[in-house]
Amino acid sequence: MLFLMLCATQLMGQAVSVVNLRTELLVNPVGIDVTLPRLSWELKSSARGVEQTAYQVLVASTPEKLSGNEGDLWSSGRVSSDVSVHVRYQGTALKSNERAYWKVKVWTSRGESAWSSPANFSIGLLNYVDWKGRWIGVDKPFPWDSETQWSRLSARYLRKEFEAKKAVKRATAYIIGLGMYELYLNGEKVGDQVLAPAPTDYFKGVKYNAFDVTSMLKPGKNAIGTVLGNGRYYTMRQDYKPYKIKNFGHPKMLFNLLVEYADGSKDVVVSDDSWKLTGNGPIRSNNEYDGEEYDATKEMPGWNKTGFDDKDWQKASFVQEPGGTYEAQMNENMKVMATLKPVSIKKLKANTYIMDMGQNFAGWIRMRVKGAKGDTVKLRFGENLQASGELYVRNLRDARSTDTYIVKGGAQESWEPSFIYHGFRFVEITGFPGTPTLNDFDGRVVYDEIKTTGEFVTSNLTINQVYKNAWWGVLSNYKGMPVDCPQRNERQPWLGDRTTGSYGESFMFDNSRIYAKWLDDIHQSQKEDGSIPDVAPAFWRYYGDNVTWPATYITVAEMLYRQYGDLESVREHYDHMKKWMDYMAGKYTQDGLITKDKYGDWCVPPESKELIHSRDPKRQTDGVLLASATYIRLSFIMEEFARLLGKPEDAGDFSSRASAIKAAFNQKFFDASKGQYSNNTITANLLPLVYDIVPEGAKENVVRSIADKIMVENKGHIGTGVIGTQWLMRGLSRNGRSDIAYKLASNRDYPSWGYMVENGATTIWELWNGNTADPAMNSGNHVMLLGDLVIWYYENLGGIKSDPSAPGFKKIIMKPEVIEGLNSAKASYQSVHGMIRSDWKRSGKSFNWNITVPSNTKALVYIPAAAAGKVKEGKKSASSAEGVKFVGMEGDRAVFEVGSGDYSFSSGK
Fold first, then answer.
1. Tell me: the pLDDT tens digits for 496-537?
2. How many domains does the chain have?
3. Please, which residues have CB within 8 angstroms of residue 209's CB and are 6 or more apart in sequence?
4. How far is residue 142's CA from residue 154's CA, in Å, rounded to a whole number?
5. Do 393 and 519 fall into the same domain?
6. Which of 107, 176, 360, 440 suits 166 as a labelling partner, its CA being 20 to 30 A distant?
7. Stated pTM of the model
8. Angle formed by the axes of helices 501-508 and 552-564, to 10°?
9. How large is the C-alpha radius of gyration of the chain?
10. Is residue 1 situated within a structural domain?
């Protein structure tokens, strides 16, 4: 998204701003490949009850025309509407490499605004034939490389000089650099992205990035330089499980530089065999799992500037294109998002030190070193230490996770890697000349350049630390796609980890673009018959068929609609989701139930802390129950999607499917006399409860079975794995047992999220018993066991929830849980409509609550009170306060509807 903060204009004496103009889903809208982009804006005001009643959008081909209020590409005219999110461009057809400038003004319940400040976007290369030149690279290793299970493949360096003969008006660089690239123009890096572009199944689609480089060109000679790293394109595990692990080839590049001169003429610089190439540069190996080796003695000063002597370089070769469709990258690139200082360095033995960063995260180390030429420093990374103080690496499996730097000698040198990342807290340092100090190192935190949109804190310290751990865990695993872990030889985009996780994450981060991109990845991984893998992009060939993991395809689309109002993702993927639903029902229906399950309730707390998976049948939930219950839930979602898209026949079909399976499900699994399902695991009872499968009149008994299982048999502790935990906290709260949910959230002994904190975790573990089970399975930085915890934090404790009837927080439900033991909660969330805040405290019988509702939205506010007359807003009775309307009583809550603005409610005094 493009954020432009505009100066407030005066409307009827109140400050109102039109801010945060956004084009489609982009942060940096250069080179988008949609010709009908969606435009969004935000209203901001200190006044109450501000509602948009109409808008006008102008889109022009030049800034001058826009300034003159000439919308030569599109003038919407005055449109009577309160919609300010995802307004579809409806103007003149946009062409490749065209730039557009736009602004908006609105009419509100408080008057007409001035025009906003302008925003702009540009169209990328829309068609295959718009790309000129050829793919270049070299499709073989260099003599010093090796291709084995632990392959070593050096980076490719490419360069070309060209001449700008006239005054440049505009220049745009387009690049597809696989597996990863760094682009330079006249010695300066283009952009601040790292590890670009975002990974894909390169046989199906490849992402290009576009950059406005006008200011970087100079009259006369110019030089372009590119470094190509390996990334996911060149799989470093060569000749190792080729039946499982995809490999796409050697690094390669397609490049276009489109130059428009001031006199109207144009030129293009392309990738072809006039470029020069070498692999004999300083990056000797770069492997996401094993690390990067950099030999500073082989640096080539000036290689990416004009005048460099490249006579020893070879001509670049024409190479086969990767096969995938060329696609503009609409999600953010990765970036160094923060820098951490280490907290300690301790000598372990001669020439070996252990450095503690104090925080588990994903990224790398920037090092400063001064030594003799040829000195070799090795940095080996891990999440934990052994009792001896040595680095613990068994959980990395065969990932070597080591960076090597060879010193060139002389002055102090500063280095950080280019094409790898590690998941770590601790670093083993060997070979460092002299004694390393804290000032010699920085931790570089790397994830997608997305904004933190939420903040959350309560009076409970355990909950606060778990939230912090979750935040670090989520950002660590955003890598152009959501991966399961950042440290071991896996790092795969498992679908099941994000079935509900994406929803909770959306409160913490603006994850709309990474998940919209991931839906494309899932679609591209789908087979012709409809099958969807468990990992997408399908870097691993895991097409085993089940319901609970591929369900993520549908639940992520639901999240994007619910949280961001993004119906376009639903529309784009509906047919493919339906195809999968038909495939699973057609292939795996037996006796009216869906029979295929693969993983069960993955990672349920086992009967022994030394086990990874439970072997006790009493803890294991029937796979047919999991598959069938999940399919029912997905049928309800697909029914909603069909109605939203105007497909009544499909909606009726999905409704019928759900009803039929529901009847067979209850007949097979429900024991009405006991009020329990199947073998009475928490998950077996919970899924029917939250998926509206339990027969009328029987819910109370099922809730009692869940409560007894948790509080009696499990002694007040969690007993669910990945599937059950996706609904555990909300399921308890919705059914009157928030007290149990709060206990689970507050526990600090095994098994619990707090147990991880108690044992020094700074992220979320893969296993409830992550400090005692088999080390080969112990990732210290996973997010799958979060389930719906973060959702519960925001919606139930913070009291911030989007009303399903008006997605994207157009209408907000503000209903915080009042739970014994919790005295305050403070949450904020930057929604697509603006900032929402909830800050409540209670003392004795008094309840005080400050809230913020963004402009152009409304909220239903549920305040603990015996009657409406017991509620004040400021110093007035709430019912008579400006912008506040009493709706009615609901149990022990007085319900009010409020418009936008800041409010201070109190009750119980």
1. 999 999 999 999 999 999 999 999 999 999 999 999 999 999
2. 5
3. 31, 174, 175, 191, 193, 196, 197, 329, 333
4. 8
5. no
6. 176
7. 0.96
8. 30
9. 29
10. no
